[in-house]
Structure formats: structure tokens, C-alpha cells
Amino acid sequence: MLSSLQSHEEEEDSTTNPTTTSFIPTPTSQYLFPTSSSPRQVLIRCAELIHHGDRTAALRIASFLISAVSPLGDSSDRVAYHFAQALIQLIESSNAGSSSSTSMIKCSTQLVQPAYLAFNQITPFLRFAHLTANQAILEAIDGHRGVHIIDLDSAHGFQWPPLLQAIAVHGYRGDTGPPSVRITGAGGDVNALRRTADRLHAFARSLGLPFQFNPLYLPSYNLGSSLMQLHQSSSSTENGEVLIVNCVLFMHKLLYGDRDERQLHEFLATVRAMGPAVVTIAERELGVASDPQDFFSVFSEALDYYTAVFEALEATVPPNSVDRREVEERWLGEEIKEALAPAGVARGTGGMRFERWDVIMRESGFTPRRLSEYSLSQARLLLRLHYPSEGYQLHVSREGLFLGWQTRPLFSVSSWQ
Residue 76 and residue 80: Cα distance in Å, rounded? Predict the structure, then answer.
């Protein structure tokens, strides 16, 4: 925890540390916060100052907070450390101009594979999303000779081995053997897509499953112009194939930067024209402010969300875990920086909560496809076997399945037709 701010101020007065920026009280900053403030209170005060345009005072506070909390402390220290880092980067990039901000975001979105792997292992969120979406897909393809899955964010392809295995084992088309599987995997890294294709082809061969993986380059900075590619990918659907569109942690990308919901509606119109049997959606329950320029609302939503995530990690993963440090620094820390990015640059880590997704999907002509009881029982089994903590909570609401920590929903999965 953050100890008395007063004692740290005295230490910084008496000892010069060239590697940190000390907080030095001045006539204009001594009143900014009480000396007994918690890390969260100091963060909130810093965000208030940014919201009101006093970046100089905010930078002093955030720089002091970095030196007063530890990335290896308890969850309140850790979340404060990463938010303080994000606030400092936000202030410095704002001072440098918009071109620096854009560069900052492009760098921060290049998430490292070890962090993704660790996040997949030590938290249930990605596994929950993949498992629940896969069950909806399995139920939709029953009775068909083949399936064509358009995966809008293939990442490293971790979602698909369990699905391929389930199809190979259960068949899903009577006594004539398993259906053929074709995946069009989209992403912004061609080399990563090729590696994913190689891994999945090798795995499918080991199962004796007819399989194809076609990479689709879909750069995040130009998604709008890629909608035609998306439509062409579905137009080659072969006889007997059922079409599935998989949007796991993809839809929020259509809200990046200064994009409004128009591009999102255009995307959904394109998807609906393809005639998919099922559209699966998994997203963080991290909303955005109705006014993207309202920085304090954006900050408050992100702080509440990531406080819950860091608390879940503290309750379920040892404090000295290398994987935990990797996830917090290279995954969650980068997400926080993106969530607080300047409006109009790339504020896209969040998105919308399920209530808003529900409205948009219905407005676009889709109807919810209720997730089965088996999906819920599978998610419960996942938590019981791999993440046995009473803090993780599952619930069903408005046709969506939610996974959260304590009372805070963190991820939702839904299925549409």
C-alpha cells in the first residue's frame, strides 16, 4: 500500500534519486490531496486535474505515485503503478503532440506472445470466451457436411484446437464421419497468421480431420476498407457448408480512435448479408463514456474494471509469479494505456457493455440465440477445475453469459443469428 505521502516527501527532500521524478510540494500543489490518501484517491485526483487541463500538477502527482507504490506490492499498489504509468505517458504524449500519441498507441498494441500465453493460463477470461463460443458453434453445425468459420481475430489460434478435437470425436453428422472444417483467420500480422495456419494444419492432420486455414490480412488501422475482403471470404462457401462468424475480442476494434458507431453498423450489415448461421461475440464488460472527450468518465470506468481484474489476480496467483508480472506489465498495463489514450487516437481497449451490444445487434437485424445450459455447466467446470476461487462469478442475463469478479462483470459471451 501507499504509505504516508508526507513521509515520502520528506525522504525525497533529503535524498536525491536520479532514476525517479520526486514529488516536490509547491504553493500550487500542496493542497492537491491529503497526505493520508490511498493510491486510488491519488489516481482519481490526478485524473481530475487532467480532466480540468492542469497537466503540470497531474504529472507531479503521477510521477510521485510511481515512486511511492510497487509493481510487486498488493493489488492496489500494482493497479496504481500501471495507471500512473499510463497517465504519465498520456500527459507527455499530449505535450508532444498528436503524432507522438499515434506512435505511442501503435507500439502499445503489439502485444507479446508470452504475455498472451500467460494471460490465457492464469486467468479464466480467454478460456471462458473460447469455450462458450465454441459450444455455440458446435450446436449450430450439427447435421451439416462442412463448416466455414470466419474468425475476425485469430490471434494465435488458441480457440480452435478444442473445437477441432470436439468435431473429430463427436462427428456432428451421423455415421458419415466428421464434417470438413475451413477457417478464414483474420489478423494484422501476416507472419503470425502463417504460424497459426501451420500449427492448426498439423493438429487437424493428427485428428484425421478435413481442414483448411486461409489467412486474411485485416489491418486494424483500415478495417473499413477490409469489409469487402470479408464479404468475398464468405462468398466462396461450398455446398453443404454452414457459415459461422466468430468475433472474440474483435467488435470493440471498430470503435477505435475517432470512429463512431457508423462503421460498426456497416460491418454488421456486411455480416448479415453473408447469411451466417451464427455470429459469436465475446467482449470485455468495459464501457466507454457517452462523450469520448469526457476523460474523467473514461478513466473512472477503466479504473473500476482493472481494479477488479488485479484483485482477481491477487486472490488466485502468487505475488511472486513470473507469469503474473508478465501479464500485468505486458498485457494489462498496455490495455490500460490504450484505454486512457487521447480521444481520436486509438482509445479502443474498452468498447461497450453488453447492454449496448444487445441494442446494436437487434438494430442490425440479428436475434439472440440462447446459450445452452451445457455452455453454463462447461464454464462452471472450467472455473472449478482450473480457477477454484469463490470470487469468480458466472451469471446469465439477457441472453448473454457473463464472467466476473465478485459483483463486477468482466467478460460477456453471446450468440446471434
Answer: 6
400 burial (CB, 10 Å; 0-12 / 13-18 / 19+) is buried
3-state secondary structure of 399: coil
The stretch 54-61 carries a mean pLDDT of 93
Q: How far apart are CA 68 and CA 80, in angstroms?
A: 10
Helix (H, G, I), strand (E, B) or coil at 416: strand
Cα distance from N-terminal residue to C-terminal residue, the chain: 48
Q: Round to whole Å and give the CA distance between 119 and 123.
A: 6
Question: Other CB atoms closer than 10 Å to residue 170's CB: what's the count?
Answer: 11
- Residue 385: CB partners within 8 Å, gap ≥ 6? none
**Residues 312, 296: Cα–Cα separation, whole Å:** 24
Question: For residues 90 and 102, is the Cβ–Cβ distance under 8 A?
Answer: no
Amino acid of residue 288 = V
The rounded radius of gyration (Å) of the Cα atoms in the chain is: 23
Residue whose C-alpha cell is 451466417: 276
**The C-alpha cell that represents 13 in the structure block:** 527532500
- What stretches of 91-228 adopt beta strand conformation (E)? 146-151, 180-187, 211-217
User: What's the pLDDT at 57?
Assistant: 93
Please report the pLDDT score of residue 34 as a whole number.
53
Q: Which amino acid is at 248?
A: V
User: What is the C-alpha to C-alpha distance for residues 179 and 192, in angstroms, rounded to an integer?
Assistant: 27
